[in-house]
Amino acid sequence: MSSTELNSIAQAMVAPNKGILAADESTPTIAKRFKGIDTESTEVNRQTYRNMLFTAPGVSEYISGIILFDETIRQTTNEGIPFPEYLTSLGIVPGIKVDKGAKELAACPGEKITEGLDGLRERLNEYYALGARFAKWRAVITIGNGIPSDTCISANAHALARYAALAQESGMVPIVEPEVLMDGDHSLDTCYQVTAKVLDVVFSELKNQKVGLNGIILKPNMVISGTDANNRADVAMVASATVDCLISHVPSEVPGIAFLSGGQTSEEATAHLSAMNEFGPHPWQLSFSYGRALQASPLRVWGGNKNNLESAQAELLKRSRLNGLARTGNYNPQMESV
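Now predict its structure.
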């Protein structure tokens, strides 16, 4: 696929007033979410839940792409339409998580390396045939005592770049996700320094692997205080620091940046995105690729009860609409109570 075609898909993924729904939780992760609402994680229940999200009336007004899991991309709607085919019919770009998860990095205590490069070319080709037009790979960077190490940053950046090159070869736009975790008591400044370094190494590796930057989407963390930090930075500080870091370290050829929520509350993630877009215009689209920040309230409302499906869909639409408003800096916290 040509760079022009990849760019066209990437542009569709960060279309104005829309964002990406991350519904790619692994089977163990979705089991934890379901346990929180006292619901058994069976294949039938997982299909019911994902079908509820994907078929919410009007969801395509606010959602431009949806990241699927291996099980989900092979499932169908209640009417028997394969999920990728159904989403495409709505103008929503179907995507797929392709990494195999973060494992302990040898000789680097407390640090992780994402696995999944073996056999990736074949898996990407299969997912393309199933209808996926973008892929996602997540690297995990932890801030702690003496970490992250250069070894960890370099190893994860190299894997991200090799994945991205293979994804583009298969005709899919790679979402490049180097996540600096919120876990810890680190300051905003520390997060800024680590994020800047990670981005520099990632883009250096992308260049080395001949990845076309106009055919990727970056999915970074926001520059934010650690969850256990004293005097955590407010919305304005997070927005200012994040935009400054991205302008200094993300090339302008990148079509869009779709933030992860990374453990923020739904309201925090929306407020931060809106504040950043108030600083616009930017060299790239500033969008969202949220999982929990879009799903937490619909999941709670559904509660595994089929009688709550419509109410849960309404909750998903509310969160999606509010994040759509945040794309132009027009979100206001007072909208939460409407």
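The chain has a mean pLDDT of 97.
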